[in-house]
Design brief:
Structural class of chain A: alpha+beta
Largest interface: A-B, 36 and 32 residues
Order of helices and strands of chain B: HHHHHHHHHHHHHHHHEEH
Shape of chain B: globular
CATH topology of the largest domain in chain A: Rossmann fold
Low-confidence stretches of chain A: none
CATH superfamily of the largest domain in chain A: P-loop containing nucleotide triphosphate hydrolases
Number of helices of chain A: 8
CATH architecture of the largest domain in chain A: 3-Layer(aba) Sandwich
Number of domains of chain A: 2
Helix content of chain B: 55-70%
Strand order of the largest sheet of chain A: 6-7-8-3-9-10
Mean pLDDT of chain B: 83
Largest sheet of chain B: 2 strands, antiparallel
Largest sheet of chain A: 6 strands, mixed
Oligomer: heterodimer
Radius of gyration of chain B: 26 Å
Strand content of chain B: under 5%
Helix content of chain A: 10-25%
Number of helices of chain B: 17
Shape of chain A: elongated
Distance between the termini of chain A: 50 Å
Strand content of chain A: 35-45%
Chain lengths: 356, 394
């Protein structure tokens, strides 16, 4: 342990990256606070991993600068940046034992054996790996390998902690468990952490702030609650939330949203001939056909456990409603859907921007 | 802390244990086992018979060989040690002291060679019978050139697998021209070879930095790899005469260093080509992770990459070792007295006036086979699978 819990800020300043003709990052600006847990969220090919690799120094940006703390690290070699990274594949050294794997970052620093052993034990204790120190990676389960990778990353107390989809190779149950452990560990150590994932649940649960990326462009940078409650555009709105937000095609005329000959009241005003109304399944409700905002035919129902998902046909769109678990509508039944105006987001269909 | 899984673990076993571990026995049906083992037994006979034949022939005399095929010593023919005596003890210098002196001389002469540009000492002439000389020569030349070749070749292969090179076409032209310059000045102007090489090297760096950078056309890693392997497409006989002239010019004919360098260079393409494949198949994340952990490039190569490509390295080493051990063409051209190798000794038994002395040839061949068998047994133990297990995902 060289630097005890040093905290560093991270800054991407107009970073661009292209591989040949393919632009992976366009004018990427991002500032991460010291000690923050920031999640880079995006689909595959959105440039999130490239951003992480640029920060680690494994890739060099085509343009722009990268800062860690006050230092411009754009041209610095990875080994001088004092960061550690957990790879999606864990990247454990198969010919080294768990202890040797964990101790590797200290070994290359040529620390003396006693200090190293103490640090290895300490790091192993933090991820509950002490009984496995003499094993080889191939003798470990997926979750244990994940812990080794984590321990190897924390042993050095780096300035910045990078994680590239570290949980995506684990099964669902273990993933939930490791998620909680990760969050706890980051909270204890207080090391600035940048975490890349395509899983919006991981992003929502782990992050202090979430940065949503799409096609190399930062879509929104905000706290999980803000991202959920106040999405900046249609992409963010649809990416966050499960099931995804419903989209209804129509037109905004004043404070009315016209769709399929039906008028829905909205809180926003404007004249947009091609608009999309978005509403989350959990904000809608089903009712008698005559009482709802809209009236449609049930396409299917799915009992999830604590609730039932009801899919209703509406013109060319389908609306998913999170209904009570005792809902007993059948396929083909007519049903009414209530869309509360305060939870209706309106977007311009041409560019996906939110109309406020 | 030991655990129950330890028996699956290759790496915890010592070198000694690994060399003598029993082979894994699969659970086979009795009939299948009989069929498989009888097939294997027949095949073993096919493979082992020539070796048996060589061994018994070495204990025959001229009469026994010429009588026609006889197979069983004492029954078919009366074994004799004549062939062995002629080869190994008939000479006054054939004893343990001679071997010790020979080893000392090898050391002495290599120091002399290394210092030759600086001070002038005469290398000592070895006084030893031919077969011991050839045997030590073969051992020294093939091991030294294999180590050199595998070390240089695997580093080159690693660089080609991990670093993108874009050599400018102009720089390659400059390099070729400078080599021509070195050859011309050495052969016609009598400049010492090491001096002209040093000047050419300095000139190359200067010219590459000044003129070469203005060229547009460049090559890639694939081109370099192909160029390397293309050096093995021509039959070696094509280059033997130029090589002879070259080594004559630098006064290295009939020296160990000439054969060591030549064997290493000749086999370099094979090492690069084979090892490139092993390196390219290593997961990149391992090296990236080590890089982030602060390891140097050489440290990564040594600590992470080499242990993981050990099976490939062992196989490549064995292949090169055997190629060097058996090499005849270069050796016969470049050695006259001092650095004759075992293949030349074997060939020498095909005499002009007395015909082929099969019994003597077989005695030399037996001595030549033994080290290869030992090396194969030692090295194949490292050619084990599953080294990468547990590296990435699982």
């Amino acid at each position: 342990m060289t630097s005890g819990g040093a905290r560093a800020s991270v800054k991407f300043d107009a970073v661009q990256k292209s591989f040949g003709d393919v632009k992976v990052l366009e004018e990427f600006n991002l500032e991460v606070e010291p000690g923050e847990f920031l999640v880079l969220l995006g689909a595959s090919g959105s440039g999130k991993t490239t951003a992480l690799r640029i920060l680690s120094g494994l890739e060099t940006p085509s343009a722009g600068r990268v800062y860690i703390g006050d230092h411009d690290v754009t041209e610095m070699l990875p080994k001088y940046r004092d960061i550690s990274m957990v790879f999606q594949s864990y990247a454990l050294y198969p010919h080294k034992t768990v202890a040797e794997n964990i101790g590797f970052p200290l070994k290359v620093k040529k620390l003396d054996k006693a200090t190293m052993d103490a640090a290895i034990l300490d790091a192993a204790r933090q991820v509950q790996l002490e009984p496995l120190l003499d094993r080889y990676p191939r003798e470990l389960s997926g979750g244990q390998r994940q812990r080794v990778a984590l321990a190897r990353a924390i042993i050095r107390r780096p300035l910045v902690f990078l994680m590239d989809e570290p949980l995506s190779n684990l099964d669902a149950k273990l993933r939930g468990h490791m998620r909680a452990e990760l969050k706890h560990m980051q909270g204890t150590l207080g090391i600035t952490t940048i975490y890349v994932t395509h899983d919006q649940i991981e992003a929502m649960t782990l992050a202090h702030r979430v940065a949503v990326l799409e096609k190399g462009v930062l879509q929104q940078l905000a706290s999980p609650a803000e991202i959920y409650n106040d999405p900046a555009n249609l992409f963010v709105a649809q990416f966050i939330g499960s099931p995804a937000m419903n989209v209804i095609h129509g037109a905004l005329e004043g404070n009315k949203f016209m769709t399929n000959g039906t008028m829905v009241k909205t809180k926003v005003k404007g004249q947009v001939p091609q608009a999309i109304a978005g509403v989350r399944p959990e904000d809608c409700s089903v009712c008698e056909p005559s009482k709802g905002t809209l009236k449609g035919e049930i396409y299917t129902t799915e009992l999830i456990g604590d609730h039932t998902l009801v899919t209703v046909n509406w013109g060319s769109d389908q609306i998913v409603v999170k209904a009570h678990k005792d809902f007993d509508g059948k396929q083909g039944d007519e049903v009414g859907v209530i869309l509360p105006p305060e939870n209706l987001y309106v977007f311009d269909e041409t560019n996906g921007e939110r109309i406020r | 802390m030991k655990n129950a899984n330890i028996k699956f673990d290759l790496h915890n076993r010592s070198l000694f244990e690994r060399m003598f571990e029993p082979p894994a026995v699969g659970k086979m049906a009795p009939v299948a086992r009989v069929v498989v083992y009888s097939f294997l037994a027949i095949w073993s006979l096919f493979v082992l018979f020539p070796i048996y034949w060589v061994i018994i022939t070495s204990f025959k005399d001229a009469a026994a060989v010429n009588q026609g095929p006889t197979y069983l010593p004492f029954l078919d023919f009366q074994p004799t040690l004549d062939a062995w005596r002629i080869n190994f003890t008939a000479d006054p210098y054939c004893d343990i002291a001679a071997i010790a002196r020979q080893i000392y001389l090898l050391g002495h002469n290599s120091v002399v060679f290394l210092l030759s540009p600086v001070i002038s000492i005469q290398p000592m002439e070895p006084q030893i019978c031919k077969i011991y000389l050839a045997f030590t020569n073969s051992i020294v030349i093939s091991i030294a050139s294999t180590i050199f070749c595998v070390a240089v070749g695997s580093m080159a292969a690693y660089a080609l697998a991990r670093i993108q090179y874009r050599p400018k076409f102009g720089n390659i032209m400059i390099f070729v021209l400078l080599i021509v310059g070195v050859i011309l000045t050495t052969t016609y102007a009598g400049v010492p070879w090491w001096m002209s090489s040093a000047v050419a090297l300095a000139l190359f760096f200067f010219l590459a930095r000044s003129i070469g950078r203005h060229f547009k056309m460049s090559l890639g890693n694939g081109d370099i790899l192909f160029w390397m392997i293309s050096q093995r497409i021509l039959p070696p006989i094509v280059v033997v005469v130029p090589l002879y002239v070259m080594f004559q010019a630098v006064q290295l004919l009939d020296t160990h260093i000439a054969l060591i360098l030549l064997y290493a260079v000749a086999n370099l393409p094979i090492v690069v080509w084979l090892m490139h494949d092993f390196f390219a198949n290593l997961p990149m994340e391992l090296e990236e992770s080590a890089q982030l952990d602060g390891a140097t490039r050489f440290g990564i190569f040594w600590e992470i990459v080499m242990p993981l490509t050990r099976p490939g390295l062992a196989a490549t080493t064995l292949l090169i070792l055997v190629l060097n051990w058996n090499e005849y063409l270069f050796a016969v051209f470049l050695s006259t007295v001092k650095v004759q190798t075992m293949p030349i000794m074997v060939a020498a038994k095909n005499t002009g006036e007395k015909g082929v002395l099969w019994w003597e040839m077989c005695a030399v061949t037996v001595v030549m086979i033994i080290p290869v068998i030992i090396m194969s047994v030692l090295l194949t133990r490292f050619i084990s699978k599953g080294v990468l297990l547990g590296a990435v995902k699982g």
